[in-house]
Amino acid sequence: MDAEHECLLLHTELRWLSRGKVLMGVFELKEELLEFYSTEGNMIFCELLKNEKWCAMLAYLANIFNYINSVNINMQGQDKINKYFPEIEIANYDWIRNPFSSLCTLSFNLRSQEEEELISISVNRSLKIKFSEESIEEFWISMKELFSKISKKALIILLQFLTLYLAS
């Protein structure tokens, strides 16, 4: 047979990136595999390799996995993660996690009204107790009426990390 591959290994250990090429290898060697399995007496696999519909699905999946593998390889490399997930200055949002910290009023991204509301929250002892008893989300939701500007800003940021695992 005029195969690109000269030998067929029954078992081989694959590297992680090579695993995406397995289906392409099976598709390229389908004639050789058919000959091998017919001599070995594995008729189940022989019937699959003779089935045109199954071979068409194999070709389709091999093509998709080959494309996914190439996309995966192109996305890898140094500093590629920052291209897709730019760094967020986490320190600018410490005031959400602890509005009672002495450093929380040093946030650079707050307007004057928001900063005033944050200062009012940070000096209020009853709100500090409430903060320790509730989750961060519950606390900021409860602040909507009293401190609408800063609460709205905190909730917009917190909504980015919302989870629905309790919804099921």
From TrEMBL:
Q: What domain of life does the native source organism fall in?
A: Eukaryota
Protein name (record)? Zinc finger BED domain-containing protein 5
* Organism in which the protein naturally occurs: Cinara cedri
